[in-house]
Design a protein that fits this description.
heterotrimer, B: Ubiquitin-like (UB roll), three-stranded antiparallel sheet, 21% strand, elongated, C: mainly alpha, 2 strands
Chain lengths: 283, 94, 330
Amino acid sequence: MPSLPDMTTADAADLARAQAAAHPGQTAPRPDADQEALFEALLRIGDSTLILAHRVSEWCGHAPALEEDIGLANVALDLIGQTQMWLGLAAEVEGEGRTDNDLAYLRDAWDFRNLLIVERPNGDFGQTLMRQFLFDAWHLELLTALMQSADPRVAEIAAKAVKEVAYHLERSSDLVIRLGDGSEESHRRMQDALDDLWPYTGEMFLSDDKDVTPAAEGVMPDPSSLRAKWEAVVREVLDEATLSIPENDFAHKGGKQGVHTEHLGYILAEMQFLQRAYPGASW
Amino acid sequence: MSKEWPLWEIFIRGQHGLNHRHVGSLHAPDAEMAVLNARDVYTRRNEGVSIWVVRSADITASSPSEKGPLFEPANSKVYRHPTFFDIPDEVGHM
Amino acid sequence: MYAQMVKSEGMKSRDEMSAEEQAFQDRIDRGEKIEPKEWMPEGYRKTLIRQIGQHAHSEIVGQLPEGNWITRAPTLERKAILLAKVQDEAGHGLYLYSACETLGVTRDELMELLHAGKMKYSSIFNYPTLTWADMGAVGWLVDGAAIMNQVPLQRTSYGPYSRAMIRICKEESFHQRQGYAIMMKMASGTPAQKKMAQDALNRLWYPSLMMFGPSDKDSVHSAQSMSWKIKMNSNDELRQKFVDQTVPQAEYLGLTVPDPALKWNEDKGGYDFSEPDWSEFYDVLAGNGPCNKDRLGARVKAWEDGAWFRDGLVAHARKAAARRTPAAAE
């Protein structure tokens, strides 16, 4: 075992891992509290885009029309790209030598911070579209706010992602309107989807102690501040779609704190299989 | 009445300000969705800045048997093509 | 090759042709493109519908074996690349269905024929993708074989088909390369990865050779299609070319082509190689491949489950049109 890290290893993450393995007692200096809060906040965004990309990509080859198959794949591709940026920055902020892929593939469910709504099973195509619409409307408000982030790295990612997400929302709201105000069957399916998913929207706007510091520093918006605009967009679209918002305002929660539904475990088992079965291999 | 989505012809203006060019077809329930679908299908590689869609059934085409009368007169006007004129090399590029 | 065993009419001699047929053949011989709505022999139209339709079906059924691994791709980058690739296949299917529709058949009709088992897709997609290395091998071998067939088809006599092929070939070049890039990574990786790569080559080598269809001596439909320029090369010619191109690529990877009889033949300037097991090929075509039922079942399910979605959008489009111009409501 060499006493110094092998300097020919190009990958910084490999270096860090080798270093950690060689000196089990040694840890990198703890990031300060601000950085830890930022790391957490970045996971909350990047994990949501990651898990939603996974769900949307499940449709590839199975959508109801070729044009939809192609359109949905574009959405998933955008979300994967955004995940790479958010988790890449999270890894950088964490400062322990991990990469975006380490964060995606080598954490267990309790370390994931995504919203519960994105891990909901795809259901029929209406469920998928309604989930996308409710998420897109929130996502756009979030990114719009993040473009003003006090952290320029965050603002930069948001500025790139916001253009993609504006299109996602255009597409999903258009389809929700058409299907809600379409045939009897499509209306019924969209209303069912809305009823099923509505209890998963409240979590988007709940704050906890982890949100306090980034919000106070102007790095991230306070989640509750996004609600009014989100609701305005959602109401307008659902009205036009002739769909009724459920009276029930119960909100499932826990995703942001790492307490998930059973579905996430299966998603990760599938997604992380190769990295887990062949540890350390390069792909 | 058929429930099949109608076919649309897609025209895209590329990055360089040229005319809209026919790039292919797709299916969509109406014109607005044809535009959205065209963006997803035909500009995946950043090919375009503007999209036109026309319902295929609404296109009136010259009939192939008229190919002679429609296009042959233009063929005979060879003077429309710059290579028709011999310009001496000494004159330089024109 | 995504079109195998496409039935066409028997070939007519020049004397048996009508004046129209002779003029049509002359145009093709001069290298002119045939465009939609121009006169064409019924056999030409029917053969093209079968061939382009089969090609289109192969693209969308071909999404499935690779789509199978999108959710299991080992890194975010690989996931994005694979998804983009499978998405391209949907696009290629779409271009080809559109080309086919210019011949007077609708996409929905073609879908119904596929689902009823009355039209085929390439035999290769009835084989399973069992490991991540299969994503490499499919790109490298299957797309490699497809490209071998598609590049010459850019010059095919039917205009819309030719233009679809040009667009497809332009997009396809990234597919084979991404496959080979995966193979390079695997072949130079851990012993387990290398084993995975070799295993993928072992399983997919002969099915890839089958993609070109049976030997010319057993291929009864080639002559007419070749004179119509909707088939540009013989099956054996393309298969030979594929082997000659692929063997050195396998050697570069340090992998062994699973054919003990494989040997360079100086005289012909190409490799001698073993024929695939053609009885297996006919079994797969007859519906008895490892994945026939799953593949077709997945397509039928997508189509049937999506009916309410497609119909719902049509219902909305009609309502919206009626609101704009009440007279057009009926």
